[in-house]
Amino acid sequence: MQVRATIGWYFVPVGSFLSFVAVFLSLAGCTIGKASKHPTWKNATGAEQYERLMWQAIRNKDWKAVEHRLAPTFVGVNAKGQALDRAAWIEYWKTAPIGDFSLGEVLVQPNGPDMTVSYIMHSSSGSAGWRVLSVWQQVKGGWNLIATSNTPAGD
Length: 155
Description:
Layout: E1 4-7, E2 10-13, H1 14-31, H2 47-59, H3 63-69, E3 70-77, E4 83-85, H4 86-95, E5 101-111, E6 114-123, E7 130-139, E8 142-152
């Protein structure tokens, strides 16, 4: 005796249906999985990872990586309210290094070819934390940070 399931107006043998579901779920597992435990600029899958990679590059004093990921027209606003271009942003972080850090309340929102990321960042360097807003833009070679603003988070 063969068992059949009704899908809309079409009868499908249950075995075929279950096989389809098993194949679908196994394929979905290939693309819907956890992000890499150790993302790099080449395998990062989202704007939150790009933010973490940027802060890691600043912490590690990897100024070549920082410069490579900042857009030529980049504008950053530091916690004192100073607007800085690309070169000044790098110089600022050379004199104000960060230690270990954590990101919380992360919100990533797509906006056309751009990604807007907001979060609160805490660093072991002793600051009370910053509320950060960044905009990443997809370009041919990956993603570039085009703007960011760091505001003291307060308590």
